[in-house]
């Protein structure tokens, strides 16, 4: 490269629709590869950072999906031209979402750019995504993403230093002079910092003993499935190299640009392979992670399913199994609004402060930064703590293994004991993917009108032998207790007298069409119900929800595409 590279300003035209959703901007690869599309969005992120951009350090990495490396190359050139001082880039552009969060915090950078569409499929005909995380390591709050979006709507040009070419396959530091300023690209090992953090949180010696077996207990068989996403290298280092699991106890640990053509979403539908292998195999625990490594699914022996809402509650009730929380203490619990109230009961029993926030990890950050939140989760297979500001799939699996090592119980025994103590919050989520947007919007609008009619309150809704009386219904709004910011229209809720709930939301992570999510929850304290199928227990409430929303009439769908 020449000694001093100069940047140029390239005129561009506005691309419509660059509005980040629940978690970043997600679109088809074909949209991102349009002329100037990616460049515009990156330039807008930089402009939104204002004066703080000059000389700053940012982290860049992603889940290894198709178009990731091209995007890193563009970010390097655009960052240099905009006066960024240093980029810390994962080798080959690989960094899991939790690893980016950890690295931002460890090196105290101004933030990071994550190249991921998370659990959405990858490849030339599938999705790509770009997300900005702030200096606390968490997803940018609405105020920042709105600012980025506003800039995209008027952008006239972007700056780029096209002469820069850094080989990101090699761990190395490159110094370049750009427009007379110093610009550095540090390509780092993708897993080192994250593994170090995990070792500071968990008792690796105890986990190793669990996995390898000891005189007291035979080896605990895990089956860890990375779904060809980014967690592969992390799983290899932690489970195989550190904890001594056999290679055969891990699957799909090579990140693939198209995730092997599969949907890298750890749920009972898309991780059915794992479910079947564990069902018929010798495994004590199965775990799967999504494309970018922030989601987790945990199943026990014979594929005993741990609902993510329960997973959160169980971890909350067992934080003393994890050394990190012994050091920090337990400051508070939180869950997203649609997540079941199982964790609320743990909070009440332990006297720990509790928060309910809208869907999306960005709403947990302020509470953590204020020292009021230690552990939180979402029903969408997201669990995490204040060790970083993202949900963390591998962390959740290590948390479960810690609880197992500490208690000597199986996954199922842990759940049974939990229900015996707290009762069971039955929960299910129905996803209707790829509905026509107009139909979905109309359904939501009509449902909102219906439930906001004052006479709706007190209505008795009946199906089969069950009746539910409406206690409250609204379009959920959240006021952040730390900065007072308000998030409106976060989902239609119908709350019943007995604590049961029905919730409707439109997904904010899809790249096209609309996905309707229906969440249904009911609490049972009668032990004879605990081992019932949630679909059976919740059937009357599900029917009520479908009638209330006229979902089939609006969308033509008579069944969901995914049931959790
Ligand atoms: C979904 C989940 C939400 C999660 C978000 C990002 O959002 O419901 O709980 O935080 O995905 O997860 P939505 O708007 O589609 O319901 V991930 O793993 O994509 O970063
Ligand atoms: Co994800």
UniProtKB/TrEMBL annotation:
Residues 18-158, 194-299, 310-422 form the Alpha-D-phosphohexomutase alpha/beta/alpha domain. Its cofactor is Mg(2+). GO terms for biological process: carbohydrate metabolic process. It is found in: Cytoplasm. It catalyses: alpha-D-glucose 1-phosphate = alpha-D-glucose 6-phosphate. CDD domains: PGM1 (cd03085). Its EC number is 5.4.2.2. The keyword Cytoplasm applies. Residues 1-10 have a biased composition (Polar residues). GO terms for cellular component: cytosol. Keywords: Cytoplasm, Isomerase, Magnesium, Metal-binding, Phosphoprotein. InterPro entries: A-D-PHexomutase_a/b/a-I (IPR005844), A-D-PHexomutase_a/b/a-I/II/III (IPR016055), A-D-PHexomutase_a/b/a-II (IPR005845), A-D-PHexomutase_a/b/a-III (IPR005846), A-D-PHexomutase_C_sf (IPR036900), A-D-PHexomutase_CS (IPR016066), Alpha-D-phosphohexomutase_SF (IPR005841), PGM (IPR045244). The keyword Cytoplasm applies. GO terms for molecular function: magnesium ion binding; phosphoglucomutase activity. Gene3D superfamilies: Alpha-D-Glucose-1,6-Bisphosphate, subunit A, domain 3, Alpha-D-phosphohexomutase, C-terminal domain. Residues 1-22 are annotated as: Disordered. Its main location: cytoplasm. SUPFAM superfamilies: Phosphoglucomutase, C-terminal domain (SSF55957), Phosphoglucomutase, first 3 domains (SSF53738). Pfam families: PGM1_C_vert_fung, PGM_PMM_I, PGM_PMM_II, PGM_PMM_III. Belongs to the phosphohexose mutase family. This is phosphoglucomutase (alpha-D-glucose-1,6-bisphosphate-dependent). It comes from Neodiprion lecontei (Redheaded pine sawfly). The lineage of its organism: Eukaryota, Metazoa, Ecdysozoa, Arthropoda, Hexapoda.
